[in-house]
Specification:
Layout: H1 3-17, H2 22-34, H3 38-51, H4 56-68, H5 72-85, H6 90-101, H7 110-119, H8 125-136, H9 140-153, H10 158-170, H11 174-187, H12 192-204, H13 208-221, H14 226-238, H15 242-254, H16 261-266
Helix pairs in contact: 1-2, 2-3, 3-4, 4-5, 4-6, 5-6, 6-7, 6-8, 7-8, 8-9, 9-10, 10-11, 11-12, 12-13, 12-14, 13-14, 14-15
Length: 268
């Protein structure tokens, strides 16, 4: 019997002796979570909530468990219950915001991220959440502003630089995107996603040699990146290296990428 199974057995034994032991139900839930038995964990937390209905931790944990199962409606209900008993919990506010982000009402997430920042302005997670809200509702200017504000406090933050670059791409401001991708690469030179997105920006500016160089780095770091393989095919076709273009187009097709039929026909 492994350690987690032994822990489950011990908590169950404890609960036979004291069925109203809320902490034991919560600890059993955590153990089930570690085993990947999320539904059983939820059942244990529900029992803990019946015993101590005003315990904010239990409702927050239920929210987290439901979020793991992508049951965001149920998660939102539990996070809101948790906030009744602990209204200034940054963790609960943030998690509730992210739960709303995964529904068809992402704008409802904003006030919870803002409330969290009012409690702890040095927490980076609500900034990401707010930026995501603006991105989802199509307010790219505000998304950019949030990332720029974040980077003033955390200038070394690579994901923020990458996301800011992506936001500029959404506005077709490719030069600004490239500037941020290059800064991100300085911090994280082996990140294939940054190189890929930089290649896309170069491609949109018709800087085909630069794009091919970045796509090449991408596939070196991540050979199975079908989009980058396709990008190399496009670049080499335009650069009139048809043999290399065909190699990458065929590779992209084998990886399941829907390569442009006209390009495949031209490379036959």
């Amino acid at each position: 019997m492994n350690e987690l199974s032994l822990a489950v057995k011990e908590y169950k034994t404890a609960l036979k002796l004291k069925p109203d032991f809320a902490d034991a139900h919560r600890n059993l839930a955590v153990t089930y979570y570690k085993q990947g038995k999320i539904d059983k964990g939820i059942n244990s937390l529900k029992k803990a909530a019946e015993i101590s209905p005003d315990d904010s931790r239990t409702h927050r944990m239920l929210g987290d468990f439901y979020s793991t199962l992508n049951k965001y409606k149920e998660a939102i209900e539990e996070y809101k219950k948790s906030l009744i008993y602990e209204p200034k919990s940054p963790a609960t506010l943030i998690n509730l915001g992210y739960a709303y982000l995964n529904t068809n009402e992402p704008s409802k997430a904003g006030p919870y991220f803002i409330a969290s920042l009012q409690i702890d302005p040095h927490d980076i997670k609500p900034y990401y959440g707010l930026a995501a809200v603006y991105g989802k509702i199509g307010n790219i200017d505000m998304e950019i502003e949030i990332y720029q504000r974040l980077l003033k406090s955390w200038p070394e933050n690579t994901p923020a630089l990458l996301n800011l670059g992506n936001a500029f791409v959404s506005k077709k401001e490719y030069t600004n995107a490239i500037e941020n991708y290059l800064l991100a690469i300085e911090k994280d030179p082996d990140n294939p996603d940054i190189h890929h997105n930089l290649a896309v920006a170069y491609l949109n500016l018709e800087q085909f040699e630069d794009a091919a160089a970045e796509y090449s780095i991408t596939v070196k770091l991540d050979p199975g990146n079908a989009s980058a393989q396709n990008g190399l095919a496009v670049c080499y076709y335009i650069l009139k290296d048809l043999k290399t273009a065909k190699k990458h187009a065929e590779f992209a097709s084998r990886l399941g990428f829907d390569v442009d039929k006209k390009l495949l026909q031209a490379l036959k």
